[in-house]
Amino acid sequence: MYSEKVMDHFRNPRNVGAISDADGIGEVGNPRCGDIMKVYIKVKDNIIEDVKYETYGCASAIASSSIASELIKGKTVEEAWDITNKAVAEALDGLPPMKMHCSVLAEEAIHKAINDYRKANNLEPWKERTHAEVIKDHQCNN
Amino acid sequence: MKRSIYMDYAATTFVRQDVLDEMLPYFKDNFGNPSSLYSFSEVNKSVIKLARQRIARVINSDENEIYFTSGGSESDNWAIKGIAFANRAKGNHIITSQIEHHAILNASKFLERNGFSVTYLPVDSDGFINIEDLKNAITEKTILVSIMFANNEIGTIEPISEIGKICREKGIYFHTDAVQAVGHLPIDVKSMNIDLLSMSGHKFYGPKGVGVLYIRKGVKIDNLIDGGAQERGKRASTENVSGIVGLGKAIEIAGEELDFEINRLKALRDKIIDGILNKVPNARLNGPRGDNRLPNNVNISFVGVEGETLLFDLDDAGVFVSTGSACASGSLEPSHVLLSIGLSHEVAHGSVRMTLGLNTTEEDVDYVIDVLPKIVERRRAMSPLWSQILDREEKISCTVRK
């Protein structure tokens, strides 16, 4: 049901863990819906120097956080912000329609972490897209 | 060689060799239509009769009370809709439970859209309906009670004899979806006062695409499939001869091996349950222990991890199981059965069902007890939900200590 790429990142997720002195942390999802993603970033000279995450969820949620961590590592904060859920799904060679929601969580977690970093540095937080704006057929509203 | 341990026998079983051998002649050599009059089709009539007799013997019915269908879902739909429409003049109320298979639940919803009212009885934390709830739900308009014999997800065996007795006393038809029970538990439709019973061939080592609805003589029921005069005019369509032969042979063997297999599987089942619960913290058995649980069913929740994750990790380890998590359901809601027994969403999402069968060995069980705890531990280590749960528990234990 999943692409080889999804299964690879699910089996061997990259960059798993927490950063104790993170510059920004973003947590999204909720246990009722069956997935939570928590992304930690370390920023130096406007570059995402390190990224780690902890993920609870199905195979596609774990794979989405893994590939997203690879996509943003070494990028500028602006470049990292512009990585959409679509880019995450494409990098995984696609996700089943029911699982697109997992890629949205990855985008949201990154945005939250970046805004957390911006607030800590007295910068205006950027405007985050809501889940419903990105994906319409998501049924878990709890 | 890569391991391949099938632990999803409740989903479907393989066809036993003895069963397949009996089926094969009816595809090519003896392909005649049982309804035809010439001698070539005689054998097709007689093997269907033999299958009916074999089934009747195992459930203690009369052979003329056995009707062949395309499977469990058709049998359930026929029972629910056929009884409802045939007995409409008497009443429009039906009683079932919240933990039925979707074939029952969705057929009931169809009836609700067509002028019937349906009571969905709740269940307790082990999945049992309460007999007092049933008595209280019965009204003068109740025409049918449909309660499953044993639950497909958590293995709970419902108090069928008690339900049957109440329904018979009140003159209400009693249907039971026995898809998970036939061939796995002793069944006696007479002593249990069962009026209608659904079964499916591929749950007891027969073929897919064939099932049975037992209808007690004298029960008033409408047809679901109209057409020719097959099945004494009650269920049209040219008989699935090879499938019927296979189902008949499969139930005969299951009947002969019943006691042996029940005891063997119970021991393996309890070994897995105890082995996993002893090794994994915060693991919860879903469904009851002991004799009121299907001998082949294990269902455990591992809070903090998603069931689909465990399913794919076990797949990599060569073990095939199923899960009640939302990820597997095609919706974002976890299993209705797990929610009905009172699990929170986060616990229900972490459930894994392992169902054992003919080829399950003690070595398989030991292997699962070895690999599953490691898989849970690895995935919990990267789960933010699991760290939240540990934090919560630490706070509770600190408060208790003070």
Provide an overview of this structure:
The complex is a heterodimer of chains A (142) and B (402). Chain A is α+β, with helices and mostly antiparallel strands and 142 residues long. Helices cover 42% and strands 19% of the residues of chain A. A three-stranded antiparallel β-sheet of chain A has the order 1-2-3. In chain A, helix 1 (4-11) crosses helix 2 (59-72). Chain A is globular. In chain B, 42% of the residues lie in helices and 13% in strands. In chain B, the strands form three sheets. Chain B has a seven-stranded mixed β-sheet with strand order 2-8-7-6-5-3-4, with helices on both faces. Chain B has a four-stranded antiparallel β-sheet with strand order 9-10-13-12, with helices on one face. In chain B, strand 3 (93-97), helix 4 and strand 4 (117-121) form a beta-alpha-beta unit. The mean pLDDT of chain B is 96. Classes of the chains: A alpha+beta (142), B alpha/beta (402).
Provide the fold topology.
The complex is a heterodimer of chains A (142) and B (402).
Chain A: H1 4-11, E1 24-30, E2 35-44, E3 47-56, H2 59-72, H3 77-81, H4 85-91, H5 100-120, H6 131-134
Antiparallel strand pairs in A: 1-2, 2-3
Helix pairs in contact in A: 1-2, 2-5, 4-5
Chain B: E1 5-6, H1 17-23, H2 42-59, E2 66-69, H3 72-86, E3 93-97, H4 102-112, E4 117-121, H5 131-137, E5 142-146, H6 160-170, E6 173-177, E7 196-200, E8 211-215, H7 241-279, E9 283-285, E10 297-302, H8 307-316, E11 319-320, E12 322-323, H9 326-329, H10 336-340, H11 345-348, E13 351-355, H12 362-381, H13 384-401
Parallel strand pairs in B: 1-11, 3-4, 3-5, 5-6, 6-7
Antiparallel strand pairs in B: 2-8, 7-8, 9-10, 10-13, 12-13
